[in-house]
Specification:
The protein has 872 residues and is of the alpha+beta class. It contains 32 helices and 26 strands. α9 (232-261) packs antiparallel against α10 and α25 (657-697) runs antiparallel to α28 (777-798).
Length: 872
Amino acid sequence: MKNWYTFTEEQTLEALSTRRSGLTDEEAAEILSRCGPNALAEEKTESALRIFLGQFRDLMVNILIIAALISMMTGDTESTLVIFAVLILNAILGTVQQIRAEKSLDALKALSSPSAKVIRGGHRVEIDSVRIVPGDILIAEAGDLIVADGRILENYSLQVNESSLTGESTNVDKTDGVLSEDLPLADRTNMVYSGSLVTYGRAVIAVTETGMNTEIGKIADLMNQTKDRKTPLQRSLDDFSAKLAAGILAISAFLFVLGIFRGMTILNSLLFAVALAVAAIPEALNSIVTIVQAMGTQKMAKQNAVIRKLSAVESLGSVSVICSDKTGTLTQNKMTVQEIYVGGQLLRAEDLNMHSQTHRYLLYGAVLTNDSTLSKGKGIGDPTEYALLEMYNKVKGLAQEDDGLRLTYEDLRTLLSRTGEVPFDSDRKLMSTKHSIHGSPTVFTKGAVDVLLERCDRIRVSDDRILLMTEEDRRQILRQNDTFAENGLRVLGFAYKESDEDLTAETEYHYTFLGLISEMDPPRPESADAIRRAREAGIRTVMITGDHKVTAAAIAKKIGIFRDGDLAVTGLELDAMSEKELEDKIEKIAVYARVSPENKIRIVEAWQKKGKIVSMTGDGVNDAPALKKADIGVAMGITGTEVSKEAASMILQDDDFATIIKAVAHGRTIYENIKNAVLYLLSGNLSAIVAVLYTSLSALPLPFLPVQLLFINLVTDSLPALAIGMEPGAADILKRKPRDPKEGLMDKSFVTKMILQGLLIACAVIAAYRMGLRESDRMACSMAFLTLTGARLLHGFNCRQNASLLRLGLTSNPYSLAAFGLGLLLIAFTAFTGVGRSLFSVAVLDAPHTALIALCAVIPTIVIQIVKIVRD
């Protein structure tokens, strides 16, 4: 890849085999056949059918399929239908989610302009952008979308917004001069890039790269190479599923052999093993995890965090590093005047007064050397310019109608219309306009402070004093300029002169200095608090921006990202680091400035190599690969490009960093709820397994019929587990450290609780079974079945959180009460109606039997709650 920005015009035209009069149609056609159309290559996507079939590759799913097939062969139609229904529902949900997730390249293609103006054979013509080829001479004007990368040959005050590529919020002034340094993309001011927007001026450009060879093409290629990562919960569930499946297969095989050894037929022994597998495998687990995540997304959407990928919900709870963009996320994405240096004083906009001639002339300069406008509260034009208009609107003296000083900036421009002007360009770094003030021709100039000072002979120190400028005056002004710059402020100098001569670039001398106006994109008011809360939650926040290092570091200090001992590096400095050097320094680097898309991916990967779960925020095309690479990609809903939104896992509708922290709290809550729901499912299933094993080893009749197991799995698995998934978050959820992503779902504490609670419920079921066995096998089976369903419904309250119900409050989660009530009605239907007893083979129960079942069902919950109260 050539460094076109180091080429002269002649070298560029020669290297491209073109001329200022452009290519001929024949030459363009030949190049088009060789280089291909100016479009982004599409990534081949899987068909919906292949995605659907891919949902059945999970080990747990395969075991359930085997169990369903065996149930079918043994005539157990109910089990077969239920298992297949659950599996197909899960597969449909997964397919829909995956199809919606992969649209990034479509959005990238949408950035292409339908047409472009080029010179072909000496004539200006308009052609489809896909037909643009390297060597074409492109004409770019204000409002045009740049459709290919190119080297500027002629520049007429061209300004381009490249924020979607570089991350820098302000327009970039372009030049046609040669640049000789090794420069990052954002500083290659004699180049334009596909996907950027011309906001001012015009230029003649030699097209250097098209299609996948453009900077956007490189980003598209990076996105193709970047694969989605599994979330911590997905990895935990995969690990858990493998272990659970192995355990269930081992137990089922043991009981199958034991049954044959005890004289059962092979078919009955197989049926018994299948019954145990159905009882042991939490068929609803994947569905409940998906539904809980989906309900969590609805909660988060109400707080301006829109989740595009369900798997991202729980990953938020594990986030330990947030790589945040600066502009619009941590800042307001709005240039605002800060301090003003005039008459040797530092003032705010509110301190300026039109009654002061010094202040008035400074304001004249700010409004008159300005091409921007305000419309319905929104700025149109250069952000640094319309910030000056907003400053003007805050000035005292504008609202006094009695002395004629009620002047809007439009009124001022009408009264003091331009009689001459020299537009800004990046070589002079100045802009001048000429006006008639009280009959005197007056020139106002604004621009870079160091350049302007060289052209000033005098300084206005007060309304009635204009002095010759001394070297000490210059040093004092430059010191103030340096102080502004060190605080990340953008500074404009203002001067004026009265002159009859024609206004040209050659006459921009002999000025009277007026003052300095500093601007910045200020931090959002809530950013500092959000950073503090993130730190309390054990989350490291890192700023990654396309802005300059000094500006980025200054903002980072204000909001608490950059602290004593931290480092700020540029993209070029990062490129110079070895992998080992970056690994050693990464935990100290708080700010990355002037970065490229490749830099962003490298930063994310470096943190991931340290075992961190990384969230990356961004709004531009240049952010998309890193958004996709991160564990949680977060795009901006207001300022974000469609490309960034499609690549992200989450979209912030308010572009506010504080919303990420709220989303992290939701993510942690959702993970805790999922973990508690899994605890509920497994402890309940364990109780059924223990009861089956007890009767098997004791040579007693099975405690549950297959149809009863299906009822247990559908009613007492799903309803309370879903209610647990809706549990409100704990008050201290953001005071806890991020969960270690290497930590499995079933840690020691989890397994201990699951076994103890499962055994406790199993003991109650076995007790009810033994009491029923005194009358008949049918009564034993009925009492065991109803005790298990009742105990598991009550167990839903135990698994809400670690705290006791006395501390949580019974009504703090109304979904748990609703699940319990609905479950109780369904149990009553099976036990006390003729249809229910017939469907589920339940014996007729009298009052003593009912009381015994209720007592056995409630005892496990009483014991568990007593333990929690003592521990609280």
